[in-house]
Amino acid sequence: MPHFEFVKSSYSSGNGECVEVARNTPRTVAVRDSKCLDGPVVTLAPAAWDAFTADLRRQQP
Known about the structure:
The chain has about 60 residues and is an alpha+beta fold. It is built from 1 helix and 4 strands; from the N terminus they run ββββα.
């Protein structure tokens, strides 16, 4: 398992809805819940993460 260097999302709020993302490995983007640091980690290909975040940006008002 690679070592991930997680960074909290700039969109995280103080109401407990926080995610952390690690992009420090060239082939994997990792995402986890910042309230559960030892919990599950979702890993994605960078292209899948880019498509996901691009879709989120298109949906913003």
